[in-house]
Amino acid sequence: MIPEALKNELKARVAAAVTNREAAVDVMKRLQAHYGWLTDEGVHESAEILGMTTLQVEELATFYEMIYRRPVGRRVIHVCDSISCWAMGGESLMAHMAGHLGIGVGETTSDGVFTLLPCCCLGNCGEAPTMMIGDTLYGRLDSARAGQLLEEERAAVMGEMEGGR
Amino acid sequence: MEQVLFRHNRPGRCVTISEYRAGGGFLPLEKALREMSPDQVQQRVIDSGLRGRGGAGFPTGKKWSFVPRDLPGPRWLICNCDEMEPGTYKDRVLLEANPYLLVEGMILACYALGVEHSFIFIRRGYETAATNLARAIAEARGAGLLGENILASGFSCDIDVHLSAGRYICGEETALMNALEGRRANPRAKPPFPAIKGLWGGATVVNNVESLANIPFIIAEGADRFRSLARIPEASGMKLFCVSGHVRSPGCHELPLGIPLSEIIDDACGGMREGSSFKACLPGGASTPYFTPEHLSVPMDFDAVARAGSRLGTGGVVVFDQNTCMVRATLNLVRFYARESCGWCTPCREGLPYVVRLLEEIEAGRGSLEQVALLQEHVRLLNHAFCALAPGAMGPVDGLLRHFEEEVVEHVIRGRCPFN
Ligand SMILES: Cc1cc2nc3c(=O)[nH]c(=O)nc-3n(C[C@H](O)[C@H](O)[C@H](O)COP(=O)(O)O)c2cc1C
Ligand code: SF4
Ligand code: FES
Which fold has domain A4-63? Predict the structure, then answer.
């Protein structure tokens, strides 16, 4: 269950929209941020807040690349596999990330920290190869820099968990 | 070189509203609201020869003129900042440096079109651009440049930012309208065209970020000045070329339309990187047929690039060197489109994965000449899809077969990729 305050905030967002549905992506994203991924419960709550059926919400949720309908780690890593990154060594970056994390593409590390996913062009093609960890974009990556970023992010996540967040 | 879109830029950070205003920002808006009628604004944009920067190159003023003046009900303007076409990052660079130009351009467009409520549709991953825009919109509102009764002119309009969640098809203008309405983003049938029946059934104009950001200059400096910025007489204005791939210093540069491809690569981007020589490029994003060394002198403008057998598209130039296998590059591109297919129509949903398989077989050395012929046939067949995504996907395949047929056939004859 989401806190009453968040529910009210989202209801206000819906009320300000031209039609309820217009706010659907915003609502799904907020619930995803709350739960870590868009849970079944989150889909039900979205539907209720938006005045839509759960099927209508599901139809949207499954359409978007960055709405997760399955559990993901605390940080989702999106590695761009589009053309400019491909030309600049994107495939070896992805292989390196998988090796470093000890998981396959699409999987989550056993400590629940990282999920590794391929993604479409991140609009950072001039600094290829590129990836996004959480909301942060990184470019001009080589395996050393990528490994270092993973360590930093892992430390940050551990800090958050200890802080009880 | 004169800059239109980058003229207010500050190194390494976003310009502030006071800097933008000190540099003449929002004067075009004042001028238009004081001295010009909506029709005059529209006419000036028509006269400027501005063509859409989102990929199709449709004349912007002409698109506006399709909205009937007397149609009842609300009308809408949507700025398209979905920018997910591989190799394209110009709108991000523009908005991270200066969101005010777009805000001002949108208010001017709203004035010309009689729109009171407009949207900026922003892709996932462009959170910095979105934050800049939210700030710019709030500041403009605070300064009386946006909202009710702008600059005491009696004209009112507002801008909303809509954040998306990542899907390339949302950039197609009718799919975008569905996405904005909170529906699954499948494209809509045309006709009715958006100018008559678009967002929530109202008359709607969809324009790219860069197209709209050019409007303040056109209003301030006039149509002739804008036209004369281009390098060749048939072209008009400047263009953001965003270069990536095997050049020495990839980057996004504002250059005159009609500039030869070689100047973009050699002068703006320092030439090819160490040890690389130019083999091919996508001249305008992932959906455009390849250019080869024989095209290096082509003037980079809409019609000239089309005459040379490709499309200017988004201005995203992706450069490949001599070590690039063009079959594998094409496979990467078609895989992107197959994954991004919205699944609405059969030719695209079923056809693109089939084309991927053909290319995989050829790349793996298991291909046949019949499969090469099938590829050729699918360039034609995929024109029958419901929207422009599938024909776009076949752009690189078309280029591959026209310019690199020998390389494709070599894969078949040798039974392996010659680059392995
Ligand atoms: C699959 C697909 C994706 C598109 N993505 C974008 C995009 O991200 N940004 C954009 O401005 N136009 C995109 N377009 C083109 C739009 O449909 C439309 O032509 C454009 O936004 C109009 O603006 P303009 O006239 O200013 O260029 C896309 C088209 C297709 C078929
Ligand atoms: S061509 Fe592809 S993207 Fe366009 S409507 Fe058909 S399935 Fe959807
Ligand atoms: S192709 Fe990877 S960021 Fe554009």
Answer: Arc Repressor Mutant, subunit A (1.10.10)
Residue A27 near chain B (CB below 8 Å): no
pLDDT in tens, B68-103: 988 888 999 999 999 999 999 999 999 999 999 999
In the CATH scheme, what architecture does the domain B326-414 have? Up-down Bundle (1.20)
CATH class (in words) of the domain with range B232-321: alpha beta
How far off is chain B from A19, nearest CA to CA, in Å? 7
CATH of span B17-227: 3.40.50.11540
pLDDT tens digits for A92-127? 999 999 999 999 999 999 999 999 999 999 999 999
Neighbour-count burial for A151-164, b at 16+ CB within 10 Å, e otherwise: eebbeebeeeeeee
Please give the model's pTM, rounded to 2 decimal places: 0.97
Residue B54 tokens, joined: 């989102």
B336 vs A contacts (CB less than 8 Å): 81-83, 120-121
Kindly state whether A35 is in contact with chain B, defined as any CB-CB distance less than 8 angstroms: no
- DSSP classification of residue A51: T
Domain with CATH 1.10.10 in chain A: 4-63
Q: Where does chain A hold its CATH 3.40.30.10 domain(s)?
A: 75-162
Candidate from B355, B382, B386 with most ligand 2 atoms within 8 A of CB, to mutate: B386
Q: What angle do CA A120, A126, A128 make, to 5 degrees?
A: 60
Model confidence pLDDT, tens digit, residues B270-311: 999 999 999 999 999 999 999 999 999 999 999 999 999 999
Q: Which residues contact B129 (CB under 8 A, 6 or more apart)?
A: B81, B91, B92, B95, B96, B99, B122
- Whether A26 contacts chain B with CB within 8 A: yes
Considering only CB atoms, B340 lies closest to which of A18, A120, A124, namely A120
Residue B402: per-residue pLDDT: 98
Q: Extract the tokens encoding B245.
A: 């791939």
Q: Which value does ipTM take for this structure? A: 0.97
For CATH 1.20.1440.230, list the domain ranges present in chain B: 326-414
